Design the sequence.
């Protein structure tokens, strides 16, 4: 067994223990208490204002360490690249606005800087934590449990199972359409042509092609999604009737 | 006392097959090939029709259509529930194992199973329903199976016969198993050569946990060679071995994580185009005319070429009166397949791959289509490959690539020239 | 037979047909909303939000299947999309998009309903980004991800998104739902 499995939160069972661990680790995201507590400790070594500021990156770093084993390096880096992009652009845009329109956004420069710095590290912590949280709880098991319970939950479980199946089906439809599109247009947003069009004519043709492509995508998604629905509905109606018959005969 | 019957109904078009299936089961299956207006009208009719349920064991025209629960375990659990009060995991595994399915797929999403696996799951489900289903209606029950698995169908048939339940089988003319009429055509195709380079390609599919769990998978093709392949050639192998993924890699729609796989035609072209098993999805719910004019909206020359090829191939099917109509208002699966092929040929790739070209076509139509496409493709200097486990295509092929499973994640490729 | 009467009849038929048919249709539209929201995402840097075209299906659901369906499709579909990438916005999305779907299903003229839904979406997100999230962020650091000034910046892309959703939803409704 991989020795790093111990650190993988998504493998922790039972699910309520996994949930509690997530809440404990994510406590700094729900309350200012941990940041204040850490800054109090650090203020013995640093200036209190500086101590408060460096408590935020410390918390973020701890949360990254928590998420990394569960996500794996590649996924973690993907999420962090998106998180950094979001955090940087938010903070830069906000500070630009602050400086360009100081009479509108009347806030002390220092206070604004601390707020934005806190926001920056917050985003960097929230993003991987929340995605790890969502990836660690599968709806399948909840629905499995519901479909096996007695009525009325079993009927609700059937509805959830149907909804999940439809979601699954839509995922298949869209990934299939993506493959089909990729096969037809390897560069995805470049139409098939021999390359002899003049530039302006090409741009017009491309815009027209793009517009029709969006329409084709929307209709194809709807039609291919709706196609198996009658058969699915029929099967679930039969299951529901059977469940009701079974319950009646058991009574 | 009920006398159980065993009836085989054969039809020459997929549309007639679906009509018969609908009439037998009372279910509604939309015909995507007739365009979106027709589709939405039909959907509305279904919504407004009275509730009509069928208590039959079914194998629908496409295997996934009768599998409405998210994973095999739930499918079998629901099928067994009326018979066994609380079907255990072991009981479910037993049913899966009985039909040659690995119990590890029990919690895998239905949508990740291959066509053959879905069909076998349908068999397991039908067996679970044998005690209470009124009858068994199966459409194309053998098509997706390798010949080594035909005994599963025989076992299921015997079970239903022993329970005095009628079985209706609805297939297309010339079905390999149920309507074994050998074609009398002589398929004389002069081979065309191209170079295929296989450098141990590997594909990895990462784990997905939300919203639905998909385990990580990897398939490694343990083969390192450069071969001069004779077209038309066959890519064949057991169910679930990785034929569709291999053809996806060839046509660059599946990204290769390591290794390499490339094609080089004699004229230097290196691209590969693929016609999927499901022609209707690949048409993006468009009609043949709109498909061709949409794809080549910026290339008048290729559009004319594709339309020319389309008309040329359509004219070969004189027995299909609806295709010869000048206004072309009736669209069938056959015309959609021809439109897809014509569009790809107009693009002049090095290689054209047809994944299960016989799907939804009678044996005669399928053979004629592939023969005429092979002639046209070779005329244009384009090699033709057929991805299939059906024995029909052996007589077409000048060579064969056989995919063999070495272990769960490793596949070997053998080349054989005829 | 007027379009309004016809739509009411279709809704009645759908509810008579089967609860499962309703579940299937609503799930399908919710899933399509989630997928279109995820696939076409243009980030709005100021607020950590993003521009998307998922509103087309939310408004279609409201116009076609009624306010309840619109509410579920908007709330669930968009929240699932947010769960994959922007989870902190789930709270806002659940409320705002749910309300948008609900308003689109109101028994008024379809064009008015669609436009009203778009306005509700833009106003709802502004309220959350300018006031609710900053206020929550003072107590719960997780929600300190947007600022009132950034919410002003986001008004324009949200308005474009709302209008595109309304126009697209109406067009789809005319094409799909007006069939006999």
Sequence:
């Amino acid at each position: 067994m991989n020795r790093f499995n111990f650190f993988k939160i998504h493998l922790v069972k039972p699910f309520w223990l996994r949930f509690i661990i997530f809440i404990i680790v994510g406590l700094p995201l729900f309350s200012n208490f941990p940041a204040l507590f850490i800054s109090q400790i650090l203020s013995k070594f640093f200036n209190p204002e500086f101590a408060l500021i460096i408590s935020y990156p410390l918390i973020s770093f701890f949360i990254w360490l928590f998420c990394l084993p569960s996500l794996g390096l590649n996924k973690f880096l993907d999420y962090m690249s998106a998180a950094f992009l979001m955090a940087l652009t938010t903070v830069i845009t906000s500070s630009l606005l602050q400086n360009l329109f100081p009479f509108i956004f009347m806030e002390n420069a220092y206070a604004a800087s601390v707020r934005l710095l806190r926001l920056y590290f917050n985003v960097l912590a929230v993003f991987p934590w929340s995605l790890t949280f969502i990836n660690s709880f599968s709806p399948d098991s909840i629905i499995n449990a519901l479909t096996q319970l007695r009525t009325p939950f079993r009927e609700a479980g059937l509805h959830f199972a149907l909804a999940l199946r439809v979601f699954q089906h839509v995922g298949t439809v869209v990934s299939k359409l993506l493959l089909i599109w990729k096969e037809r247009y390897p560069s995805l947003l470049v139409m098939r042509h021999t390359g002899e069009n003049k530039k302006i004519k090409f741009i017009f043709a491309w815009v027209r092609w793009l517009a029709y492509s969006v329409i084709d995508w929307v209709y194809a998604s709807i039609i291919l999604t709706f196609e198996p629905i009658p058969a699915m509905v029929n099967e679930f109606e039969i299951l529901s009737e059977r469940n009701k018959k079974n319950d009646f005969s058991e009574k | 006392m009920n006398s159980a019957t065993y009836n085989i109904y054969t039809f020459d078009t997929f549309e007639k097959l679906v009509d018969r299936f609908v009439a037998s089961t009372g279910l509604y299956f939309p015909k995507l090939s007739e365009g979106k207006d027709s589709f939405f009208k039909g959907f509305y009719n279904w919504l407004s029709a009275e509730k009509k349920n069928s208590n039959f064991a079914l194998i629908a025209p496409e295997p996934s259509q009768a599998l409405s629960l998210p994973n095999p375990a739930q499918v079998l659990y629901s099928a067994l529930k009326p018979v066994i009060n609380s079907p255990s995991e072991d009981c479910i595994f037993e049913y899966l194992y009985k039909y040659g399915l690995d119990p590890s797929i029990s919690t895998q999403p239905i949508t990740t199973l291959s066509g053959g696996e879905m069909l076998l799951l349908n068999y397991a489900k039908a067996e679970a329903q044998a005690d209470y289903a009124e009858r068994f209606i199966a459409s194309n029950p053998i098509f997706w199976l390798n010949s080594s698995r035909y005994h599963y169908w025989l076992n299921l048939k015997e079970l239903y016969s022993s329970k005095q339940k009628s079985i209706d089988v609805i297939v297309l003319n010339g079905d390999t198993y149920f309507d074994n009429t050998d074609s009398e055509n002589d398929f004389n195709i002069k081979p065309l050569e191209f170079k295929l380079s296989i450098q141990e390609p590997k594909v990895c599919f990462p784990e997905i946990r939300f919203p639905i769990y998909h385990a990580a998978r990897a398939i490694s093709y343990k083969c390192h060679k450069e071969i001069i392949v004779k077209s038309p050639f066959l890519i064949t192998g057991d169910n679930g071995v990785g034929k569709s993924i291999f053809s996806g890699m060839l046509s660059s729609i599946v990204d290769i994580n390591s290794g390499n796989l490339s094609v080089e035609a004699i004229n230097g072209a290196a691209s590969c185009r693929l016609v999927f098993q499901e022609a209707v999805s690949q048409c993006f719910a468009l009609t043949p005319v709109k498909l061709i004019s949409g794809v080549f909206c910026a290339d008048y020359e290729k559009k004319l070429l594709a339309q020319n090829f389309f008309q040329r191939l359509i004219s070969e099917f004189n027995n299909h009166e609806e295709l010869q109509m000048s206004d072309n208002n009736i669209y069938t699966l056959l015309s959609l397949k021809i439109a897809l092929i014509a569009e790809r040929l107009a693009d002049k790739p090095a290689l054209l791959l047809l994944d299960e070209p016989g799907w939804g076509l009678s044996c005669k139509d399928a053979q004629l289509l592939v023969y005429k496409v092979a002639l046209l493709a070779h005329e244009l200097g384009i090699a033709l490959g057929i991805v299939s486990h059906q024995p029909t295509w052996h007589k077409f092929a000048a060579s064969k690539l056989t995919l063999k499973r070495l272990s769960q994640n490793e596949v070997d490729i053998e080349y054989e020239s005829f | 037979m007027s379009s309004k009467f016809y739509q009411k009849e279709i809704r009645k038929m759908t509810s008579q047909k089967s609860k499962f048919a309703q579940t299937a249709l609503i799930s399908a539209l919710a899933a399509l909303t989630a997928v279109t929201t995820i696939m076409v995402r243009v980030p709005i840097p100021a607020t950590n939000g993003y521009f998307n075209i998922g509103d087309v299906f939310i408004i279609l659901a409201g116009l076609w299947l009624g306010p309840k369906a619109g509410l579920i499709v908007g709330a669930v579909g968009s929240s699932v999309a947010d769960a994959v990438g922007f989870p902190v916005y789930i709270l806002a999305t659940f409320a705002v998009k749910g309300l948008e779907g609900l308003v689109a299903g109101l028994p008024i003229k379809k064009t008015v309903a669609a436009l009203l839904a778009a306005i509700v979406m833009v106003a709802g997100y502004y309220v959350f980004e300018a006031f609710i999230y900053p206020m929550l962020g003072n107590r719960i650091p997780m929600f300190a991800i947007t600022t009132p000034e950034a919410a002003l910046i986001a008004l324009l892309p949200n308005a474009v998104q709302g209008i595109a959703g309304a126009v697209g939803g109406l067009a789809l409704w005319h094409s799909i739902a007006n069939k006999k």
